[in-house]
Every structure is written in structure tokens, then in C-alpha cells.
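Please, structure for the following, as C-alpha cells.
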Amino acid sequence: MKLRSTSIGRDVELGEQKHYLQLFVAVVSLFVLQASLAQTPFSLLIEVVVASAALMLAVMLAELSRRIVIVIGVVVALVIAIAVIQTMFGGVTDSAKGLGLVNLLLLAAGTPALIRATRRHPTINASTILGAITIYVLIGLFFAAMYRSLLTFNPDSFVTSSGSLTPSAMQYLSFVTITTVGFGDITPVTNVARTTVALEALIGQVYLVTVVAVVVGRLGHERRSKPGT
């Protein structure tokens, strides 16, 4: 009986790791899409679909109530439907603004869901580490989407000493900021842009030296508090 329970526990853990890996792949795919595709209504639609898939995976891992999952699912479906309509009938500028904000909201909602999911693990394991890394990438993608939105609504938010301020350049800015590399080739100009960049740098550093360090350091240890608290 004990051997059977151990086998079932391993199967559950492997299944959970598979879901975390799927979520990580979806987030990395979103990273690649935002870095490689030009900002067009169709490319933004693809990003919204991938971000929606990542959000639903995070929601399922968080083990939220059935009612909440249904509500989020309906909202995601409506968001995708609106994105499709904007892509088909909206102008490039309107679609870029609308879909950019939708992408931003999806990223913002997915991160808390994943945080809740990782906090429910009774033992710090591979899934917890994978979830923590995914959250870190999501934070970078969230700020990249925010920079893109700032640039869309106010083209004077940033200046660059080389190249142009493309969506991929905004993602580059986000990840050199969150890692505090800061090459300085892209500079925030407005107060809102400067505050946002400073906030990302602060969150990135605090997250690495606290959350990731603690998770890796306590690999294999049981949590002191109950799951979900």
C-alpha cells in the first residue's frame, strides 16, 4: 500500500512538472515572438493568443475555484475575440494600442496566478524552481509590454543612441534593466518612463536575491507553513 501511494505521489509530481514545463515553454515562446516579430496587428494577435494560453496554464496550476476559472476563461475568450476583430477591421495604430494593452493585462494576471501556484507546494521541488524562473521571465515580459504601451501612447518616452525603438528594442530594454546590466543605449526621458524603469530594476534585484535565492537554497525542504498560506 505504501509503495502504491509513493508511486501515485511520483506520478502527480511528474504531471505537475509537465504542466510547469508547458507554461515555461509558452512564456519563452512569447519572449521569442516579442523579440522577433514586427509590431503589426497580426503579430500582436499571435502574442495575445500565446499570452492567453500561458494565463490559462497558470490559472490551472493555481487550483482556483471552478467559478473563477470559468470567469477567467470567458474573459480570455472575449479578449481573443476582440483582438481578432481589431486585427481584421481596425487600423494598425488602434490595433497596436488595443492589443498591446490586452497583452499587458494578460501578463499582469498570469504572474499572480503562478505565484499562488508555487506557494501551494508543500515541498520545494523542481516545479517550484521552474515556476520561480517563469515568474522572473514574466516580470520582464510585463515591463516590456508596458514600455511598448508607453511608447505607443507617447513616442517621446524613450530615446536611443543607435537603431530605432522597435518592440524588440523595448523587450531588450526590459531585460537589461531587470538584470541591472544597463548598457545605456536606450534612455527613458519622461517621468513615467523613468519611474517604470527604476521600478523594474528594483523588483528584478529584490526578486533574485530573495525569492530565487531562497527557493534554490531550500530545494527538497518542506515549507514551514501550510500550502496555500
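Residues 1-9 have pLDDT under 50 and may be disordered. Strands lie at 158-160, 186-188.
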